[in-house]
Amino acid sequence: MPIVSKLLLATALGAAICGPASAEDYRLGAQDKISISVYEYPGLSGTFAVGPSGEIGAPLIGDVKVEGHSTGEAGALIAAALAQAEKLRETPRVTVQIVEYRPYYVVGHVDRPGRYTYEPGMTVLKALGAAGGLYRPSGGDVLRLERDATNAEGLVQTLQISSAQLRLRIQRLHAERNDFPEFKPEVVRVESDKNALLNSFIQQEQMIFNAKRKLLSGQVDALSKLAKTYRAEVASLRERVKLKGVEVAATQARLNVDYKLATSGATASSVALERERLLADIRGEEEELLSLVLRAEQGVTQSEQSLRNLVDSRERDDAQELHDAEVELAQAQAKLKTAKALVNEALVSAPATYREWASDMQQQPSYRIVRAAGEGIVEISANENDPVKAGDVLKIVAASISQ
User: Fold this and answer.
1) pTM over 0.90
2) Taking every pair of C-alpha atoms in the chain, what is the biggest distance, in angstroms?
3) Phi and psi (nearest 5°) for 100?
């Protein structure tokens, strides 16, 4: 049985023996924040956010999909990924805890519609209480709705500008990773009155692109020239070593002749001794040249390694920055969708709706929950005691509207 299956089976059996627990019943999803503790690898421990794709990115193991799993199952998946990545003989001990649940949303006939922090055991009635209870019309409610619409519209504009800036940043990072000679952004659509701001964003990203490219080019050129200088030095020194070898051979040959002449008495032995000292000096110079060749070759190796490290570091930094920008864009898009829904809610709930609510405020409203289900979304009827899950949208519908 694969290690992941074994660990998930063990987690399921453990949950069955210990009985139901909220942490095991809860299924992780995007925007959840979890704490990972690895006893054998403290450096891997930390707090991680589940991304829009349902994955977390952790050192050593990369991306691990935890969406739809309990904390125990997620711990088993992470432990299996770590054991596989590090080729461990024993599975490490991994503990996963929820630090912050993904939010739920309350909209409709409530006093404070919006986003709320999820807590285990949340029900429709508790969510209604967190949102200030059922809406109670008052003389200033029309003005409040108008003010809410204005505030939400301002948030929509801010998020649209932020999204445009993030798209340009992502395009620039792709251009850097593909080593484009210049940054030519694709069209990013904004409202006509935001064109000047968009142009300033484009200029800013182009300046960053050009500055980083110029810096990298300068560093690459410097290291390339250094390696070239060392290679030229190696070639020059090897030529000198070659000449010195010729000199050693010639001196040795002459020394051999001196030995023969000294033996026959044709010349003084002091001549041979002087020749020996000369040969020793020449060989010493040859060894010094060989030492210089070794240093120059080490210089070539070090400069080439520095060049590779520079390029690798740049690629890692760009990849991380691109990942962060894509996550930030996905979060901005989710917030923008919510803000637009709030704008629509505030505008639809105008003075005409106020009068209908005032006449029906004593009647029981209806509750509907919009919930993600697999690849789709379902909307179900609910009562006050039904559970509200993290990520749900609870719709409180006035009696006159639901009838």
Assistant:
1) no
2) 139
3) -150, 125
